[in-house]
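Researcher: We plan to redesign the surface later, but first we want a full-length starting point. C-alpha cells attached.
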C-alpha cells in the first residue's frame, strides 16, 4: 500500500526522536513545576529560548564553547527563574492557579518582545561543536553525531530526574512538601527554599533544552513560542504532573509525529492535538495521571 524507501522512513523517525527529545525535556520541566508546585508555567518556552540565547551570547561575547554553555546557561537561567519565583510567583500561592498562569503568560510575552526588539525575528546560527560534527553510516541511514548525542543525553537527563524525584529521600521530601508542607516544615526542612529551588530546577531544564536545540534549530526569539503549545499538549496527554508520563509521552509523540509525516503529511502538524482530544475524552487525567 505504501511504497516508502527505508531511508526516508528512518530519516523521519530520527527527526521524530529529535523532536521528541525536546518535547520530553521541556514537558519534564513543566511536570516538575506543576506536579510539585501546582504552577502552570506559561513562560517555560521563553526560558527555553533564553537558554539558547545564553549559549549564543556566551560564545559570541565570552568565547565559551558549547560544553561550557551546557553548564553555565541553565544555571544562569535557573537563577533567573529563582528570582521570578521569589519576587512574583510567591505572592500568588494563596490565590487561584489562574493568576500564576496569567502572570507567566504575560512574562513570556515581555521576554519574547525584549529579545525580538534586540535581535530581530530572524534566527541566528550556532555551530555544532567540533567533537560532534560528522556522522555514522548505519547502512540503512546516516546518523549525524550531534543528533545522536541529543537523543542519548536528553533520555539520560530525563531518567535521572525521574529517579531523583521518585526514588530518593530528596524526592520524597519534595512530594511530601506538596501534600503537607506544615508537617514537612515541622521536621526542620525549609519548604519555601525547597519550592524556590525546585522552580529554578524546572526552569534550568528548559534552558538546557534550549542549549541543546541551538545547533539544530536557529536561535530565535520565537523558538519557544512555536514549541510551547505542543509541549503543553504533551503534558496533558501524559498527565499533568506525571514525571514518567512526560518522558514516555514526549518521545512517543515525537515518533508518532515523524511517522505521520511519512504516511499522511497533511496531518503531521495536528496529530498531537488530535491525540490530546481523544485522551481527554477517554481519560481526562492523562495516560499516566491519577484520576481524582
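Model: Full-length starting sequence:
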Amino acid at each position: 500500500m505504501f511504497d516508502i524507501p527505508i531511508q526516508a522512513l528512518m530519516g523521519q523517525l530520527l527527526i521524530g526522536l529529535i523532536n521528541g527529545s525536546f518535547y520530553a525535556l521541556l514537558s519534564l520541566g513543566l511536570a516538575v513545576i506543576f506536579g510539585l508546585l501546582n504552577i502552570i508555567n506559561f513562560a517555560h518556552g521563553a526560558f527555553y529560548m533564553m537558554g539558547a540565547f545564553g549559549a549564543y551570547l556566551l560564545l559570541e561575547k565570552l568565547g565559551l564553547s558549547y560544553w561550557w554553555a551546557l553548564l553555565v546557561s541553565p544555571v544562569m537561567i535557573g537563577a533567573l527563574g529563582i528570582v521570578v519565583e521569589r519576587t512574583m510567583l510567591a505572592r500568588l500561592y494563596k490565590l487561584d492557579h489562574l493568576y500564576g498562569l496569567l502572570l507567566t503568560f504575560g512574562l513570556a510575552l515581555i521576554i519574547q518582545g525584549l529579545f525580538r526588539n534586540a535581535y530581530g525575528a530572524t534566527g541566528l546560527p550556532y555551530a555544532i561543536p567540533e567533537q560532534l560534527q560528522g556522522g555514522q553510516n548505519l547502512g540503512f541511514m546516516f546518523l549525524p553525531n550531534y543528533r545522536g548525542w541529543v537523543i542519548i543525553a536528553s533520555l539520560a537527563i530525563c531518567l535521572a530526574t525521574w529517579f531523583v524525584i521518585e526514588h530518593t529521600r530528596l524526592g520524597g521530601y519534595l512530594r511530601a512538601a506538596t501534600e503537607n508542607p506544615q508537617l514537612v516544615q515541622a521536621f526542620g526542612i525549609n519548604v519555601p527554599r525547597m519550592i524556590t529551588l525546585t522552580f529554578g530546577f524546572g526552569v534550568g531544564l528548559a534552558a538546557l533544552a534550549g542549549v541543546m536545540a541551538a545547533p539544530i534549530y536557529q536561535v530565535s526569539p520565537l523558538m519557544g513560542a512555536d514549541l510551547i503549545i505542543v509541549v503543553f499538549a504533551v503534558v496533558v496527554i501524559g498527565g499533568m504532573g506525571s514525571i514518567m508520563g512526560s518522558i514516555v509521552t514526549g518521545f512517543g509523540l515525537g515518533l508518532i509525529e515523524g511517522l505521520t509525516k511519512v504516511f499522511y503529511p497533511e496531518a503531521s502538524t495536528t496529530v498531537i492535538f488530535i491525540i490530546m482530544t481523544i485522551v481527554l475524552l477517554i481519560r481526562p487525567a492523562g495516560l499516566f495521571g491519577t484520576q481524582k
